[in-house]
Amino acid sequence: MASTSAATSAYHSRGKTMEKAERDHVMTRLSQAERDHFRHFIQEVRTRAAASGARVTARQVLATQDDTVSPALRAALEAVVARDETGPQVGDYPPDFALKQLDAEARVRLSSFQGQRPVALIFGSYT
Q: What are the E-state strand segments in 37-93?
């Protein structure tokens, strides 16, 4: 449990997003009861969002958790909060960029579609 406390302390002192390797390390150190509580927490976020029809963040649900949450579990839950708060938010405009078209040397800019039609950006990993 000492290494989990160290990861938790590093997370708190840094005040930034927990890296994936740190998150994985914290998650592997949770007891079965803590993992069950973590799953319940994630389900509660989803349930509240579905019931309200509005965006419910993990931070809002974490704020309702009592102080009996173990430091290891709190670190895992705060990693979820940090993940939710990283990156663009609903309604934010994406940064402009240009991509090379398939089978051509021409490039297309995202901003060229503004005001014309909706654009869906789909990212994935094929590794």
A: none
In a domain, residue 73? The reply is: yes
Q: Is residue 95 part of a domain?
A: no
Domain assignment of residue 35, given as a range: 2-85
Does pTM surpass 0.70?
A: no
Residues paired with residue 98 on neighbouring β-strands, in sequence order: 109
Helix or strand holding residue 99 (H, E): strand 98-100
Tell me how many domains the chain contains: 1
Three-state SS for 22-70 is HHHHHHHCCCHHHHHHHHHHHHHHHHHHHHHCCCCCHHHHHCCCCCCCC
Collect all residues with Cβ–Cβ distance below 8 Å to 12 and sequence separation of at least 6. Answer: none
How confident is the model over 29-58, as pLDDT tens digits? 889 999 898 888 888 888 888 888 877 777
Residue 62 lies in a domain: yes
